[in-house]
Amino acid sequence: MQLISIIPGFKPKNDSRLLEKAELLKPGLYYTPYPAPTAFRVNGQEISPAEMPDRPLRRGDQVLMDFGRHIVGRFSLSLDQAGSAQDAPAYIRLNFAEISDEFGEDPKQYHGWLSSSWIQQEEMHIDILPAQVCLPRRYAFRYVLLTVLDTSLKYQLLVRGASCTGESSADETALPARTFPDDELKRIYEASLRTLAECTQLVLEDGPKRDRRLWMGDLRLQALTSYVSFRSIALIKRCLYLFAGSRFPDGRMSANVFTDKEPAADDTYLTDYALWAAPTLREYLAETDDGEALDDLLDPVLFQVDYVLEHFLTADGTVKEEAAESAFIDWSDNLDRRTALHGVLIQALEAAASLCERAGDPSRARFYRDKAEELRQTAMRLLWSEEQGCFLSGDQVSVHSQVFMILAGVMPPERASEALERAESLPGSPRMITPYMHHYYVMALLAAGQKNRAEKHLREYWGGMLRTGSDTFWESWDPSDPDGSPYGGRIVNSYCHAWSCTPAFIISRYLLSSPT
Amino acid sequence: MQLISIIPGFKPKNDSRLLEKAELLKPGLYYTPYPAPTAFRVNGQEISPAEMPDRPLRRGDQVLMDFGRHIVGRFSLSLDQAGSAQDAPAYIRLNFAEISDEFGEDPKQYHGWLSSSWIQQEEMHIDILPAQVCLPRRYAFRYVLLTVLDTSLKYQLLVRGASCTGESSADETALPARTFPDDELKRIYEASLRTLAECTQLVLEDGPKRDRRLWMGDLRLQALTSYVSFRSIALIKRCLYLFAGSRFPDGRMSANVFTDKEPAADDTYLTDYALWAAPTLREYLAETDDGEALDDLLDPVLFQVDYVLEHFLTADGTVKEEAAESAFIDWSDNLDRRTALHGVLIQALEAAASLCERAGDPSRARFYRDKAEELRQTAMRLLWSEEQGCFLSGDQVSVHSQVFMILAGVMPPERASEALERAESLPGSPRMITPYMHHYYVMALLAAGQKNRAEKHLREYWGGMLRTGSDTFWESWDPSDPDGSPYGGRIVNSYCHAWSCTPAFIISRYLLSSPT
Description:
The structure is a homodimer. Chain A is of the alpha+beta class.
């Protein structure tokens, strides 16, 4: 599956009133200094921080710096020279990595469909030493690898120091105190919040290494987690206004919005992402009771649901193939998405109904609720396989189909559990690839009353990423295929990714004894 | 021959009084805008400047920009994008070349003894398009090759424009009007002045591509050429003060001085370069009658001659092997340098005598003049081969030996011509590699009364560089080995080099009918 939409001549339709409000909601950033790496290795050998400043480096030498934790921000080097005079520029390469495995891959060997320009590497010449080299770009990293491409026969390079400044708009002081039954859950919770904080920038980014952009599928999960932690309320509102303020000319919401310049909807439409706008707004209002947001955003959000109802239902009341083809659901090449999308649509209809109630429009609310009920019945009639005891999508059985149907409230808990078990036990059914999908799976387990299994899965799956040595959660992780990548190469994978931040939400809301 | 001197713990001895005067003599720079390349090629195909701004560029595409002449200065690019939104950074490489042949060599394949950091190349990521990319470093180039390392599947790169700003402290308005007998001589003259102007910066640099530094061997030839052209009198004085102001602790002048920071003599001593200080000062005073310079510089300059007399003469009055080993003369691996250096020493003694006369010290002047005469007699007695009709250096016959002996006035013109012819006709004698050496060869021909041969050689040798398409003169050029390099790879050769700028001097002084 390649997610590359190109609509020739596409121009988003911008609503300046909404975008001005989004601009006013832009947060300030907190800057955190990291004055030095916590550990150095030179050519693979550990060297103490005290020895590092005087270690002469020659052509080919490599210095691995470990800052001890994932950081999003700017990087600076203090360089000097030893030996005779500097008779030629120093020439260095810097590679930045979120996890150390990234250094095992050769950037030149990446030929996948994402741009290799995301690989975090720089080459530079330093004409005059000593020099303070402050890199202007922002990086996402824990490790920095400096390679000496050349000095000269007359002199050697010295790395006197390295520092960085973390950037995030997440307010650490807003975090509630929590106690945990054990260390594993605590560590998962903390990595979850670190992941969220690193993605909490001038918008809620999907990943600070790559894309660095506002995507609806990520936004919903970030917002849910933020409500129980940093409570970046204004930023979440800003993001909703950005989606509503720059849309397709026909009113559809884009899957993502570019915000580095004048905000601009991407020409990528994902059916499920557009539908998540309604639940995301409902969840926002449950936290804030923000009447202005309801007034401004109701119509744009309901439009997303109406559009699908109008354009993407077949005569028999299931979603059309073309709508499923433009749905995300998960990074699975061989996934049939129709049934899962049907489940997402029901959830969007329920959210739409709830928004209409809040807006004082009970008749419209009833319309959406009736529609949701009708789609549930259609699902049981046309998509459910009595023989297999679970939902089909086309001929395909997948966990994905069960998960979104369970979250749509189509089945009572007991039946839901059985359907999930059937799908999971079927050999060859599509695997869940992303923490995004695993989040919905855990939510489905909880909805099916399987709290123990939910907690076990959370510990195994998210805990598995931490057991590799990472301190943030990833964009993509299939424990049975740890080297897999949706992008044709792990080197462009994002190892701190918004949609994987939800364990803190799940733990706080469902697993701790005193839920918030 | 590798020119890499490293003296552990070396610290130059600086004279702050002289260095302050040097600082006050620092020139301003003239900035010349070059608003656009004169020609573009995309993937080898010529494209009109009018079409270029709208030509979408994808991964792997290459744009060759030709600015139509050699430029030393800063480079800027105006970049934009076509297609769908820019969903990833643009990633480009820029290579700068003085001659287009440089692009035929792979920087990664250079493994010579000079630093590969001199290869003019940059890689960069542009996060947001459109962008004006202004490179902070200075380059020496006529051609710029932009390689698109990556965009993304969604967008293409556009090169809306490229421009540069030339930098030089040479005053073009000071140039005298000259008329030439033919176009060839005019073109050689102009390329010679362009070469000098490009090297005329905050100091007289050896080459703006590489080293970018003040070397005595270059300074003398630049100064001679500048007197008949830009007349950068204050800058020449500044350079002499820099050599005198930062020296070896024992008083010797370094072969070159670093001036990017607090001036600092390099720890490289070249016997002939130190000796050239006296002729260089004498020539400066012949142009300026600058009493302050004579007062300040006489002692430091005479010290260089005295040092050689004291340390580097054998009991029989010829120069020691160790002095010859630390002499430059030319980039020839197999050259025996003793006899050539003996000739340089005589010239330095004559210059020292002349400086003492000017300073009102006739007895010291006589000392140097007598010493010069004594060395001439020693040369004829011990270094001249009656049998071969020319000078030997050890057992070796070389043009180099004859040239510096002729310029030392050891032989009358007729005998000089014969000696040169003998050396040139001997198969297997060391070849002349550099325009530096060819300059002294032409001067020797003139001293031997061979004006026609001098002019013919100037047209053939320097004209040969122009016939390759270059518009500046090079650091190194042996027509019989056009791919040769003293540095183990042509890609680090300098193609605009100070010591090759002398044709304008020779033409103006010796070849034009109304010499200046």
